[in-house]
């Protein structure tokens, strides 16, 4: 008969797997399984016999790569991707530039009320995206916007921010307003982890605050900049809340303005979940490839600098 002491090591060795089991089950049920089901649906289609009436008139059949071929040839999906590309070219540089600037300013010895300022910059990130889009949407409308009222009183022209080219700036402003605080916190936390001795040595060598920021602080937080850029790229490719919320306020935002809006329209507007699944899979693959390529390029650059 095996004694309790001889069984104890096996229980200790199996304890980590027991702790990981709940997280693994949740990951499998609510992440891996839906993704697998979406990929499965992307290779299927609905076959309609006759008028589509009666039992057995509609059946799900294997479609192969038909849905993916149609997605590649879909001009609305391609145009949505180009619009998101232009949107990202505005959002990502401005948002990360402001986040880095605010982080460097808060890390300065001369700054006052740093906790309050840090909270004020971060606070917009806590506002839900739909609420932020509604807030800014009404500020953009000429009939209800206080900015338009002030411009009218001053006799200045009132730009229509919800039409044409300014629409990209209006959408980008919402994303920048909401995302700058989060990226600032990430960069600021990295700055605070830099040893104070590094700054003291630079000051003894006669370095100015600007030189310390450009030659010491920014290179030291490069990994955080890579991380925030990575997150920003993913968020840009998945833009959905802002254009969807502003759509009722303007005719310039179509139901397929962004790729994810196109997926939503196909799935729930046209009731074609198979094409929507193929499009969603393509978006996920493109996001993965871009993210992997960027991280690999960043790691290669870090290795080259380390070798020097």
Identify the notable features of this structure and list them briefly.
membrane; transport; ABC transporter permease; single chain; MetI-like; mainly alpha; cell membrane; 308 residues
Which fold name fills CATH's third level, the topology of the domain at 84-253? MetI-like fold
The CATH superfamily of the domain at 84-253 is identified as: MetI-like
- Rounded mean pLDDT score: 87
**How large is the count of helical segments?**
13
Overall description:
This protein has a two-stranded antiparallel sheet. The model has no long low-confidence stretch (mean pLDDT 87). It has a domain of 170 residues: MetI-like (MetI-like fold, Orthogonal Bundle), CATH 1.10.3720.10. The longest helix has 39 residues. The chain is globular. With 308 residues, it is mainly alpha-helical. The chain starts with a helix and ends with a helix.
Concise structural overview:
This protein has 308 residues and is mainly α.
How are the elements arranged and paired?
Blueprint: H1 4-42, E1 44-48, E2 58-62, H2 66-72, H3 75-106, H4 114-126, H5 129-140, H6 146-153, H7 166-192, H8 196-204, H9 209-220, H10 222-237, H11 241-246, H12 259-269, H13 273-307
Antiparallel strand pairs: 1-2
Helix pairs in contact: 1-13, 2-13, 3-7, 3-10, 4-7, 5-7, 7-10, 10-13, 12-13
Membrane topology: Multi-pass membrane protein
Keywords: Cell membrane, Membrane, Transmembrane, Transmembrane helix, Transport
Subcellular location: Cell membrane
């Amino acid at each position: 008969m095996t004694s309790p002491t001889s069984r104890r090591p096996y229980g200790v060795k199996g304890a980590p797997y027991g702790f990981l089991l709940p997280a693994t089950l949740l990951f499998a049920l609510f992440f891996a399984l839906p993704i697998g089901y979406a990929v499965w649906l992307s290779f299927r289609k609905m076959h309609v016999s006759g008028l589509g009436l009666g039992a057995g008139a509609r059946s799900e059949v294997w479609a192969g790569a038909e849905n993916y071929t149609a997605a590649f040839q879909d001009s609305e999906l391609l145009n949505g991707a180009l619009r998101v590309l232009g949107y990202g070219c505005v959002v990502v540089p401005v948002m990360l530039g402001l986040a880095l600037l605010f982080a460097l300013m808060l890390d300065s010895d001369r700054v006052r009320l740093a906790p309050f300022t840090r909270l004020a910059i971060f606070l917009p990130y806590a506002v839900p995206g739909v609420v932020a889009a509604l807030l800014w949407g009404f500020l953009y409308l000429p009939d209800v916007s206080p900015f338009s009222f002030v411009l009218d009183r001053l006799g200045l022209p009132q730009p229509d921010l919800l039409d044409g080219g300014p629409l990209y700036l209006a959408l980008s402003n919402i994303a920048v307003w909401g995302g700058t605080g989060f990226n600032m916190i990430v960069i600021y936390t990295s700055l605070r982890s830099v040893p104070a001795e590094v700054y003291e040595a630079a000051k003894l060598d006669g370095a100015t605050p600007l030189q310390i920021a450009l030659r010491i602080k920014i290179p030291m937080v490069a990994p955080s900049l890579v991380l925030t850029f990575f997150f920003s790229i993913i968020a840009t490719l998945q833009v959905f809340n802002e254009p969807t919320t502003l759509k009722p306020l303007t005719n310039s935002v179509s139901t397929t303005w962004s790729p994810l809006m196109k997926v939503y329209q196909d799935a729930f507007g046209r009731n074609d979940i198979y094409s929507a699944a193929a499009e969603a899979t393509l978006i996920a693959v493109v996001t993965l490839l871009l993210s992997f390529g960027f991280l690999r390029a960043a790691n290669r650059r870090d290795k080259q600098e380390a070798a020097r």
